[in-house]
C-alpha cells in the first residue's frame, strides 16, 4: 500500500493480510505484526500471543486506523489466543461484534470472563490489557475507540446485544465505507469519517442514535442498502420495512437517501434489475423473463420488460441474445 499524506503523518493507516491460503503468506503472524506496527502504530499495541497462535496463524484480516480509532475485521480459520496475563494500563473503549464463532474476553472488573457468541456484540471500557481467545472459524470486527468521549456514557457497564441492532448496523455500514474510501479521504473527509465513527459508537453505548444528526445520513443510507441487498427477493422489501428494521421513520430514511442523491425505492428497483441482468447471462438453464419478473417482485412480465429496457436500453430478450457466447 502506498502512503498518502494522511497516512504518512499518522492520521490514517491500513493494511490487509490473508494467511488462510496455504503457502500464500509464509510466516503469516510475522507479516501481520510487522504491518500492524508499521501502519497502525504504538497507540494500539498488540498483546503477546500464545506460541500455538504464532505457529499456526491462519487468519484473514483487514485493519484501518483513522486518528484514534482502529477497526479490525478478522476471520480466523485457526484459533487465536493471548499468552499469560497482560500487564500495564490502558484507557480505551472496545467494541467486539462477532458474526460467527466465539470471542472470549478476560480482564473484567469482576475477575470473570465474557464470551461473545456469533450474532452478538460487546462494548466495554478497558482499563488494563486483557486476555482473549477465539475458537476456530471466528469472524468478528473489533473497534478500539477513545475513552474520553465514550467512558462517561458507559461507566463500569459491559453492554451486550444483537449484532443486528440498528445501531450496530449503522456503525458497520460506516466502518465499511471507511475501509473503502480511506485512500481518497481529504482532511475534511478524515474529520467527517472520524466524527461519524464516534457518534455511532455513542449510539451503541446509548442504544439509540440521533436520527436528525446530518453526519449520520450516509451511514443510515448505507445500512439500508446493505439490508436491502440481503433481502432483494423478499416481497415485503420496501422503504417502510427498511425503516422499521433500522428503527427510524420512513421520512428519516428518505432524508438519508436524499442526502446521498437517490431514493430507497429507486435503489431497490435498480438492484433487482441488476440481479436480473446478471441472471440473463448465466448461460444454459437461465430463467425465463416471466420467472425473473416473479422472482424479483415485478408486477408482471410487461412491467419487468419496460423497467429493464428503460434502465439498460434493451429488452431482457435482446440483452440475453446480445450477451450470449458465440457457438463453436
TrEMBL record:
<dbReference type="InterPro" id="IPR009057">
    <property type="entry name" value="Homeodomain-like_sf"/>
</dbReference>
<dbReference type="InterPro" id="IPR018062">
    <property type="entry name" value="HTH_AraC-typ_CS"/>
</dbReference>
<dbReference type="InterPro" id="IPR020449">
    <property type="entry name" value="Tscrpt_reg_AraC-type_HTH"/>
</dbReference>
<keyword id="KW-0804">Transcription</keyword>
<dbReference type="Pfam" id="PF12833">
    <property type="entry name" value="HTH_18"/>
</dbReference>
<dbReference type="InterPro" id="IPR018060">
    <property type="entry name" value="HTH_AraC"/>
</dbReference>
<dbReference type="GO" id="GO:0003700">
    <property type="term" value="F:DNA-binding transcription factor activity"/>
</dbReference>
<feature type="domain" description="HTH araC/xylS-type">
    <location>
        <begin position="222"/>
        <end position="322"/>
    </location>
</feature>
<protein>
    <submittedName>
        <fullName>Helix-turn-helix domain-containing protein</fullName>
    </submittedName>
</protein>
<dbReference type="GO" id="GO:0043565">
    <property type="term" value="F:sequence-specific DNA binding"/>
</dbReference>
<keyword id="KW-0805">Transcription regulation</keyword>
<keyword id="KW-0238">DNA-binding</keyword>
<dbReference type="InterPro" id="IPR050204">
    <property type="entry name" value="AraC_XylS_family_regulators"/>
</dbReference>
